[in-house]
Structures are given as C-alpha cells and as structure tokens.
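Attaching the record inline, Q. Sequence:
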Amino acid sequence: QVQLVESGGGLVQAGGSLRLSCAVSSGRTFSRYAMGWFRQAPGKEREFVAAINWSAGSTYYANSVKGRFTISRDNAKNTVYLQMNSLKPEDTAVYYCATTLLRLSSYSDSREYRYWGQGTQVTVSS
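Structure, as predicted:
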C-alpha cells in the first residue's frame, strides 16, 4: 500500500507564497516513476499543476503556473514539494499530490496516477 499526505496549505494574500509538501509512505519498497500536483476548485474539474520525474528530476508545469510554481523532491525524505510564489486568487483550490509506479504517456493526465493524497486547501485572497 502507498499513502500520500499533503500539508502546507492555508490562506494567503495575492502575491504571497506557500510551500506544499507531500510525504509518501509505503509498507513495502517501491520505485516510483513520477509525482504530480493537481488542483480542483469547486465546480471545476481536477487540473494538472506540475509533475516531476522521480529519478531524473525533470519537471513539467501547466502554462498557468510556469514561472511562479516550482516542484521539487527530496529522495531521502520521500517527499515532493510545490513552492508557490506570486499567488493569484485563481490559484484557490484543493491541491492534491499523486504518484505512479508506472511510466506515463502524459505527465498531465490525472487518470494515469494511481495513488492520491487527501488534499490540502489553498486559498488566495485578493
């Protein structure tokens, strides 16, 4: 089994910053292929935010967050981070981290991620 726990969400003013963390735990040894961050606002579909190839560290971003968000990982801590700068009200959403043990055809396709965290709320005020 694989469990993911997000933390770091909260309320911040527009232009501010937050850093989200996602700790991964497992009862067995496993090798992940990638981890991603997705977000979902009320009444909207879950959308891709950022992803990282675990071994190579290659990163991928949605156009809406390029230049503002940075995804990174700490192998020793089995943790992935999402540094969010220059936050906008439109960034308000529940943020979820996810991982997959298999190769992906698309880093941005949520359907290709098997394991998901419970989500953490990010609210950006104007």
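Residues 33 and 56 are 10 Å apart (CA to CA). The first strand starts at residue 2 and ends at 7.

More tomorrow.
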